[in-house]
Fold each of these.
Amino acid sequence: MERRTLAFSLPKFGTSVVMGIADFSLATLYILGYGLAPILGATILALGKITIAASQFFFGWISDQTYVSKWGRRKPYMLILSPLLGISTIFMLLPSLIIPLEDKNLVFIWLLVWYLLFNIGYGVTTPYGSWMAEQFSVDERPKASQWQNLFGMIGTGVMSLFSMLILTGFDEKIEADPTTIPFDFLISVFIFGIIVIALFYVSAFTMPTEPRHEIKTSMLDRLKLLLKNRNYLLVTLMVGLASIAWSIIGSLILLFMEEVLKFGGLLYIPIAAAYLIGILAFLYFWRKMITNIGKKKSLLYIFLLAIIALPFSLLGLLQIGTAFTFIYGLIFILAVAGALGGWYLLPAILYSDLAEDDEKRTGELKAGIYQGFPSIILNIFQAFGLMIMGLILELPNINLIIPATGLDISFGYVLWGPICAAVLIITYFYAKKFIIVDFEWENK
């Protein structure tokens, strides 16, 4: 791996760790640990989704407009926003360093302020992501995306270990005494906050400044031109539709292993490891597929793999022995990881190529707005997917429908697979008919 690819990929590690903690642990931390009312916690998390959509779009849009001779368009935003992201992570997760936790109004305000600042800081990912179109040629982007996602999945693995080894015990301690800050938790949070800042700075100082592309249109005109790009909008809608399913899959797959297949304790670790390693391995596989057969065929094969694999979640109803369950669970999670590995690889490549395709026609490379605008659509569809997940998990318990299974959990824990497959079937035919992601100029 060349130095430029490494420097570009590194920040993904830090953002994956802190966003993973925010997504998976923040509600538990504040509702169970610090006694915040669930409705207030849910309100703040919903506002966060809106904030992150707006910040990713805004900073991508505005970074197209600015060019500092020494630093280019993207580096200034990385140098300014990454400290906001790192510092807000620390204060968001450690309120007891500053405020009295018995004042629940103050706890609410604290979380609201720092979580919104955290999501504004997360807007740094759009100027950073815009670099793929500006720093890498079309044939280099699959490799760059592979390594970027590799560091992202390593970050997710670190976040998972942090959750299992440190957060679990911390939740129990703060329920007993909210003012308690275990040393391992304190040090971990500070390290994560510092790593986020450090990796963006390493990337900014070691990556070359992107070439200067003259942009003569105004910010508003660029938005109007983007909204007239029919193929771009069709691809963005396709990504949104698919994200309904992917958001459910990502949230439920490990819960499925725990609640349905009963992979707790030592059995949980190899299954979770297989999930992460499977995604990493398939990143490489799908990168080669994109090179050999193109982006659209690869995309359709990714959908087909998920469509075939996901309905097998229903086999979780067959509680017929540990050996069968382990083998079935391992195969199932590797198939799902295979599809997810391909999906994680593609969107960054697609939007970089669409930005370059637009440049071929207009003479302006508007990489920032091309990367930022989809975040609005994506967050709306992801929120919709999570709402569907909530409704699924409100279904009656399995023992009321099929008593012989012995499972006493919602039927949604096995039904999510066919539902997600149905969403992806629709997306498959939509993508096959409407979108263009392989361009004639790529072969020249």
Amino acid sequence: MNWLEIKSEEDLSKLIEESFQDNIGVAIFKHSKRCSISSVAKMRLSSFWDFKEELPIYYLDLIAFREISTLIAEHFDVKHESPQLLVIKDGECLYNASHMGISVKELHSELEVKN
């Protein structure tokens, strides 16, 4: 699994641009290093993630970059949660899961329905 980090508004803009490319989208995982549920969700993603280039995954340390997390919530019109997994395609959020609802299997099901 190749985590791509979000550390700036520029990184977020680049991610949004990438969502318009020929792929199924880009994923954002918002993670709190202080939260055990977030750690479990990250471990589950790392263990079962089987997407390759078709769904790059970005990682946001929301303790260090809380302002970026707020921008993500505002830009994609989603409630801020932690942990949280979003999939962005063509600049729009088409999938949003949080806490123990974060599941690679569920993500596969959702993306099959929407593609």
Amino acid sequence: MNKSQLIEALAKAENLALKKAEEVVNTVFGDMENALIQGERVEIRGFGSFKIKNYKGYQGRNPKTGEVIHVADKKLPFFKVGKELKERVDIA
């Protein structure tokens, strides 16, 4: 499912106009994004949690040329699946 499909599903499930459903989805994702930018953790009970992980820089190598390059420190979002979702998906 992609973002536009999520918007359509929300509009259908809640009998909303597509524009209103799009506004709701964009607001939720925007607020989650802002929380992560501010270093906060985002938890959706039964689904999972998002947080920012810090990675230290290191010396890497360009696989094509073999040249040594420096990879800078970076921060990346990390998702950890919740126990309930993990159990629901694993039913087979």
